[in-house]
Amino acid sequence: MEQSLLHGRLVRLGAPNPDTDAETVAGWSRDGEFQRLLESDAPRLWTARSVKDDISGPEGEDKPLDREFAFVIRTLVEDRLIGFINLVIDPWSQRNGWIGIGIGPREYWGQGYGTDAMRVLQRFAFAELNLDRLTLNVFAYNERAQRSYLKAGFQVEGRQRERLRRGSRRYDMIFMGILRDEWRGGEWPSRSDAGSA
Predict the structure, then answer these.
(1) Are 160 and 137 in contact (CB under 8 A)?
(2) pLDDT of amino acid 2
(3) Phi, psi angles (nearest 5°) of residue 39
(4) What is the CATH number of the domain that holds 137?
(5) What is the pLDDT of residue 192?
(6) Using CA atoms, how far apart are residues 19 and 16, in angstroms rounded to an integer?
(7) d(CA 27, CA 119)
(8) pLDDT tens-place string over residues 117-172
(9) Nearest 5 degrees, angle CA 117-CA 84-CA 147?
(10) pLDDT the model gives residue 61
(11) How far apart are CA 30 and CA 144, in angstroms?
(12) Dist CA 123 CA 119 (whole Å)
């Protein structure tokens, strides 16, 4: 079976559907560890309405579609919604992109799904959008995510010391990036090889 640009080995990226996806995504916020790994703000429960607004924008408000790309992550085998991944181009003139990712159900953590989704998004960003670099940030205590990003070719570029407070402790915020030439030289398939990914 031929696969598209947005298919990987374990997952595919798809357009979010506010009507069918919002309740599932909102449910992930009930997991305190998910919140701790994803949010720098105080934990808050998401509602289906707030997720719908995040996906499609509040009623009557257009989202900046020309610089923001939001995808849901679905497994290839079961077509199960397991996460989301976003790319924000800032600014287009510099061809820079910022990435955010979250995998909701715990049984999919540490199994390679996030790494695969990141590689698919890299292919989209570098081969389709012609970006020059991608950047993300991660909390120092989220070692599993750091390992995943390193596997996907990102390099540590810097850190903000004690940027985040969790309980009585402070933690660093780590910044990681990958350049298009580094991605090209890696093991990740180019657009022409997308069908075998």
Answers:
(1) no
(2) 46
(3) -105, 140
(4) 3.40.630.30
(5) 40
(6) 9
(7) 26
(8) 999 999 999 999 999 999 999 999 999 999 999 999 999 999 999 999 988 999 99
(9) 50
(10) 56
(11) 21
(12) 6
Structure tokens at 126: 């570098």
Burial of 18 by CB count in 10 Å (0-12 exposed, 13-18 middle, 19+ buried)?
middle
Q: What is the DSSP string of 49-103?
A: HHHHHHHH-STT----TTTEEEEEEEETTT--EEEEEEEEES-GGGTEEEEEEEE
**CA-CA distances (angstroms) from residue 196 to 7, 71, 72, 185, 190?**
9, 21, 21, 17, 10
Predicted confidence at residue 48, as pLDDT, reads: 75
A 10 A CB-CB count for 25 gives: 23
- Give the position of tokens 């120092």: 140
**96-103 sheet: strands from edge to edge:** 11-14, 68-75, 81-89, 96-103, 133-139, 169-179, 155-166
Q: Which domain holds residue 96?
A: 11-196
Residue 3 in domain = no
Cβ atoms of 152 and 138 closer than 8 Å: no
Residue 171 counted as domain residue? yes
For 115, the token pair is 């790494």
Q: How many residues does the chain have?
A: 197
Q: Which two tokens stand for residue 189?
A: 């398939």
Rounded to two decimals, the pTM is 0.85
Q: Which residues of the chain have pLDDT under 50?
A: 1-2, 60, 188-197
Number of structural domains (the chain) is 1
Structure tokens belonging to residue 101: 């990712």
